[in-house]
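Changelog note: in this version the structure field was regenerated for every chain. One regenerated record is shown below for reference.
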Amino acid sequence: MKRTNLSAIGISKTFSRTGSNDSLPVLDMIDFAIQEGEFVSILGPSGCGKSTLLNILAGFEPADIGHATCCDDPIQAPSPERAVVFQSPLLFPWLHVQDNVMYGLKQKGISKADSEELALKYIKDVGLEGFEGYYPSQLSGGMQHRVSLARSLVLNPKVLLMDEPFSSLDAQTRYSMQQLLLRLWEDNRKTIVFITHDVEEALLISDRVCIMSQRPGKIVEEIKVTFDRPRDISLTSSQDFSRLKAHILTRLLS
């Protein structure tokens, strides 16, 4: 039986406005449990608190009420067990691809030889073999996102937290990155939490979709995505896909 890798228990969050007594409720009693190896998308309208929720799961900021756990341990600070992939690749411009991927390994005290071996493996896995010595400015946007993904996976995290990582890419590159992510996930079955506002993206990649309401965000429905894997773009033209997409859009707009 699979164990729960990540959970949120009654999480609420309110932001105070600087220089004012006003407050902005962002999250309202978020509850969910994500199983080991599960791919879950959190889908919601802009401004509903998706990224704030991810920041709490990453340990970047605390909840006001409730708490989050990873492998039954309270999340109180960032940890290499929970790697984060952001909207922007956030690569170090003065480091070439291999050193960017190796950066986290060096912080963990892994030897140079082992770090180089691991970095080269993941660079190959994301399809960038031959680009080890290139700098971020010499890479396309899609290639930079591949480096960012390799930099996270090389740490062998228990959970991969992804905050709309492909939202800035053109449609073709975005679909290519989705397929790459799914291939890597099939290979290692990391637990993935994927933040998105794109319904088709959520349905193409996820085992389960958690739908959030307008701010203050709460989870209003969880949908198990039962389409057979592997999935490709042809799925989007099926009647079952269209019906489920329409249902989700209705929930988002309600």
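Spot check on this record: The first helix runs from residue 50 to 58. The longest strand covers residues 4-16.
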